[in-house]
Amino acid sequence: MTDKPFLKVLGGETVSPPPIWLMRQAGRYLPEYRAVRAQQKDFIAFCLNPEAAAEVTLQPIRRYGFDASIVFADILLIPFGLGQKVWFTPGEGPRLEPVTPADIAHLSVARAREVLAPVSETIRLVRAGLPASTSLIGFAGSPWTVATYMIEGGGSKDRFAARALAWSDPEGFDGLLDLIADASIAYLADQVEAGADTLKLFDSWADSLPDPLFDRVVIRPTKRIIEGLRAQGITAPVIGFPRGAGPQAVRYARQTGVTALALDHGMDSHWARANLPETLPVQGQLDPSVLKAGGAALDDEISRLLSAWAGRPYVFNLGHGINLETPPEHVEQLIARVRGG
Ligand code: CP3
C-alpha cells in the first residue's frame, strides 16, 4: 500500500528499525536554520513565506534523512488567522492580546482559512522537494492548548486563568474551543489537500487537568476535529500529543479517534505498553535533555526505548521538542544508533 516506513507504522505495522523524526526538527539548533531566520525578522511573516518555510522544513531532511518532515509553521497561526493580535519577541516567547469569550464574535474561521493559505503553498513546495519515502506532516495545536495562549496572552506556568474560565463560563469557553476546532478542521483539510499525508495535533498543555475538565477541554474538542475531518472524507492518519496527560492518555486514545499517540518522556513506558491498546501506534519518549547530553547516556536511553517498544508499531521521536542547545552531531549519533540497531 505504501513504501513510506512512517505510514506503515501509523497503519499498525511493526517496522524494525523504527522510522524516526524529531519534534521541532527545524529550528535554532541548526546553523542553516539560523541563517534563514536572520533574514526573517518577523516570525509570523516567516511562517507565511512559503519559500522560506519550505527551505527550513527541508533542511533537517537533507542533513539527516528523517522518515518524516513537518511543515514549518506554528500552532499560534490559528489565533493570528482568526484575527487576534499575536507577536513573537525573541527571547520572550509568544505574546497575544488576551481574548475573552465575548470576543468570539470578532474572530472569523473564514478569515483564518484565507490568512493561512500560504501554509498550503509551503506544503506543495516541500512535497516537490521530498524523497518519495519521506512523509509530510501537517499540524495544528489542539483547541485547549491554543485557547490557553489566547486567554492568558502567552505561555503561562499553570494555565490558571484558562482553567478558571473553563469552570466559570463553560458555555463561553466551550464556544471558543469549538471555534478553534472549526478553524483547525478547515486548516488541516487544506494541508491534506496540498499534500500532507499525516496530521498531528499538539496538546502541549494537556497536563494537570482534573478528569471532568480533561474530558471537556481535551477529549471533546479533539474528537470534534477528527470527526470533522472524517466527515469530509479525509482519511489521513492523525497523531495526538496530549503532553503530560499520564493515565488520561488511555481514555484520550480510546475516545478521540486518533490513529496514533505521541508520548512524552514522563510517561512510564511499561505502564503505557501494558495499558494502551496493543494495536495503537505510538511515537516518542526520548527525553530532549539526554539528546542534548549525548554520549553513553544517550545510547542507553535509545536502547531502553527500543526494547520498551519492541514488537509494537513504534515511531522513534522525542518526548517534546528538541532543545536549541542540542549539538547537531548528537542527532547524527541518535540516528546511527536507531538505524544501526
Ligand atoms: O520542525 C518543527 O517542528 C517546526 C514547526 C513548529 C514550530 N512550532 C516552529 C517554531 C511546530 C510543530 C511548532 C509547534 C508549537 N509552537 C507548539 C507545540 C509543540 C511544543 O513544543 O509543545 C507550541 C506550544 C508552540 C508555540 C510556540 N512557538 C512557542 C512557545 C514558541 C517559543 C519557544 C521557542 O522555542 O522559542 C514558538 C516559536 C517557534 N515555533 C520557533 C520555532 C522554530 C522558534 C522561533 C524562532 O526561530 O525564533
Structural account:
The chain is α/β, with parallel strands linked by helices and 341 residues long. The chain has one domain (20-281): TIM Barrel (Alpha-Beta Barrel). It contains 16 helices and nine strands. The protein has helices at residues 5-10, 31-38, 43-47, 50-64, 77-82, 109-115, 117-129, 143-152, 160-168, 170-194, 211-231, 248-255, 269-275, 288-293, 295-308, 328-340, and strands at residues 68-70, 86-89, 93-96, 135-141, 198-203, 238-242, 260-263, 282-284, 314-315. The strands form two sheets. Strands 1-4-5-6-7-8-9 form a seven-stranded parallel beta sheet. The protein has a two-stranded antiparallel sheet with strand order 2-3. Strand 5 (198-203), helix 11 (211-231) and strand 6 form a beta-alpha-beta unit. Helix 6 runs parallel beside helix 10 (170-194) and helix 7 runs parallel beside helix 10 (170-194). The longest helix has 25 residues, at 170-194. It is globular. The chain starts with a helix and ends with a helix. The model has no long low-confidence stretch (mean pLDDT 98). The structure holds coproporphyrinogen III (CP3). Coproporphyrinogen III (CP3) binds next to strand 3. GO terms for molecular function: uroporphyrinogen decarboxylase activity. Belongs to the uroporphyrinogen decarboxylase family. Pfam families: URO-D. Substrate binds at residues 24-28, 74, 149, 204, 320. Its EC number is 4.1.1.37.
